[in-house]
Design brief:
170 residues; mainly alpha
Length: 170
C-alpha cells in the first residue's frame, strides 16, 4: 500500500508513525487514504459500468440470455448496500484516527508554545539585567574618573556604544 500517497503529517515529529502505530491505526490510515481518493471513486464507477456492461450487453446478447444478475441488478444492489454499511464504519474509524492525529499535533503545538513563552521571558529577563549592568558600568566609570573618550574608544573597539545602548533600554 506504499503507492497510496499520505499527507505530510506522517513526517511530523509529534505524530506517531510506522512501527509506533497499532495495526488498526495503520489500517485506518490506509482506508482513509485509499477510500478518500479520486482513484477509488474512478475505480468504483468503473466497476459499476463494467458490471452493467457485462451483465446487460455481453451476457444477454452474446451469451444468449445467461446473465447472472438481470436488469434491476438485485445482486449488485445487495453488494452496494453491504459496501455502504462497511464504508460508514470505515469512515468513522478514519475520522477517529484523524482526530488522534490532530490531538497529537495540538499537544505538540501547545508544548512548543509553552517552551517559546518561557524562552521569551528568559530573554526579557536577560535584557533587563543587561540594561541594569550597563547603567552600573557607566556609573562606575564616571565615579572612577575614567574619561568618557576612553570609555567610548573601548566600546567602539568592541562594536558597542554605551550611550546608544543605554538610550535604547529606556
Amino acid at each position: 500500500m506504499a503507492s497510496i500517497k499520505t499527507g505530510r503529517w506522517h513526517k511530523h515529529p509529534a505524530v506517531r508513525s510506522g512501527d509506533q502505530l497499532t495495526f488498526g491505526e495503520r489500517a485506518a490510515d490506509v482506508m482513509r487514504n485509499g477510500m478518500g481518493s479520486w482513484i477509488f471513486v474512478g475505480a468504483f464507477f468503473g466497476v459499476m459500468i463494467l458490471w452493467a456492461g457485462i451483465n446487460t450487453v455481453y451476457l444477454s446478447r452474446v451469451a444468449h440470455g445467461n446473465e447472472f444478475d438481470p436488469f434491476p441488478y438485485i445482486l449488485l444492489n445487495l453488494f452496494l448496500s453491504m459496501l455502504a454499511g462497511v464504508q460508514a464504519a470505515a469512515l468513522l474509524i478514519a475520522a477517529k484516527r484523524q482526530d488522534a492525529i490532530s490531538s497529537e499535533l495540538a499537544l505538540h503545538d501547545d508544548q512548543l508554545l509553552t517552551k517559546n513563552t518561557d524562552l521569551t521571558a528568559e530573554i526579557h529577563d536577560f535584557s533587563r539585567e543587561a540594561a541594569v549592568r550597563t547603567e552600573l558600568l557607566e556609573l562606575l566609570c564616571v565615579k572612577a574618573g575614567i574619561p568618557q573618550d576612553q570609555i567610548n574608544a573601548v566600546l567602539a573597539k568592541a562594536g558597542l556604544d554605551l550611550a546608544d545602548s543605554a538610550r535604547k533600554q529606556t
